[in-house]
Amino acid sequence: MYPLVYFAYALLRGHLLAAYPYPFIDVSTLGYPQVFLNAGGILVGFVAIALLAVGLDHWRKPIL
To answer: Which of 4, 28, 39, 59 has the fewest CB atoms inside 10 Å of its own CB, making it the most exposed?
Structure first.
């Protein structure tokens, strides 16, 4: 929930001040479709890493 709220805040703040905190969400340069595509790619990356970590945790044998 927090990342989504921060993303919305960053877009709103960038719109109001015409200064975006990260170049991959700079709407004035990239446009909204590319910014949302970039954010979706980052989301997919985080989910993939989380699933990999959980999968490795379930795969390894318990230490006694």
So the answer is: 59
